[in-house]
Specification:
Largest sheet: 8 strands, antiparallel
Strand content: 35-45%
Number of strands: 8
Number of helices: 6
Length: 194
Amino acid sequence: MAARRIAALLALALSAMSATTAAQDAVAPDLPALIECRATYEAFMGLVPVQADPLAAVSLGWRPQPQANLFMVEYQLNTPIEVFGHRTTHIAFAGDAILAVLDLEDPRVLARELQLETGIDTPEKVLFGLEVRAEEVAGADGQPAWIDSAVINVSNVDSHPGKTLAGCSYSRDPLEPEEPEIPGGASPTAALPR
């Protein structure tokens, strides 16, 4: 009987320690910088463990929300943030993007303010974007091997009527290999036998 109590107390203590460790390990990210594309790809990737661990999210003051859209994971924030000149307590992750869910009926207004390019503009669906950063990143050998990109997005989605989604998509893609230059300006395919 005493052994069971000791085991139960030990399990409870370990559980409390693990929750405390998760809370201590979770460093509050700069959400406005991430959402406005002012952060780095590494800072965005630093949120992956938080998304995977509800205790870490809660320790940051994020409350997981029911999934209203299959492609988004949403949180309510205990403390409001300001992004693109608007306050919100609602954020979401969708693929490689972190988004603020704003109380704006028409996304076009914010897209014009941010001078974004039009991707889709129909009465039902709007999507605007602009690549604000594309930088070469060195690989292990010190030579450029990757392109880090950040794209501001403003859109709407059927699952959130009357809301505007505004945020940043982060990506790191391999550099495209350069095609060899052939003397005389001929293209590589022109040199092939027919």
